[in-house]
Amino acid sequence: MNHIRYVEYDARHDAGFVFDVPQGHDCWLLLLTHTPAFFRVDGILTEYPAKSAVLFAPHTPIHYRASGELYKNDWIRFDSDENYVSSLPIRNTPFPLPDADYCHNLFQLITWKNSFPGQNNERIVDQLLQLLFSELQEASRMGTGSFRLSPNYHELMNLRKAIYNSPQLSWNVSGMAQQLHLSEGYLQLLYKNAFGTSCMDDCIKARIRLAKDQLLYTDKTITSISEFCGYRNVEHFCRQFKRLTGKSPKEFRKSGKDSAALQI
What we know:
Number of strands: 9
Mean pLDDT: 91
Oligomer: single chain
CATH class of the largest domain: Mainly Beta
Shape: elongated
Number of domains: 2
């Protein structure tokens, strides 16, 4: 069970901002930083980068401060007896967030649902907190020991989201590299290191994923689906589809409809 005492997103402070509570709070405090900041960890004041998270346990000394002209964060002060909170692998020390935008969006939803009355808001807030801590659990395991995110990781993550959200666009390595202000070779190296696949292979997977949905849930022709998914040549589309699925688009459509018929 959780009880939120106060929650805020996009909180802004000037260069002189210092938060110092030597005895800590009598509840949990979770921060998500949007700018670099100094945190005192094991008695040493260290600068941590933006897009970090830190969970302070109850009665734990808290000290952090701005490291630039602006300090900005999301924060929540709350009570909880949930295991997913107390079992977070890293506590009282900032760790990097691979998908900081996702966590920020959850913070916004928690703030809105907690601020306004609603019949189901308490249950929704609990579910949102569980989603947030699920992401933090995964991120904290990645960040154990040191900051391991590759250079430009967050820009690469946003690029990957854009590819899967709109695979039909004319994606190419040159355009992606220009978008991130990187050389083509360096982009491909960083992308492969970050996600274990190339950016163009991701694009192909996203296009085939979209094509499978179109084949099963529309009556469009294969040529129309090919164009809808960003292919200029239907033969090229069919070759890539079979390479990834083991079936031609026509075979895939037929097998999908046969499976659906068996379930009726």
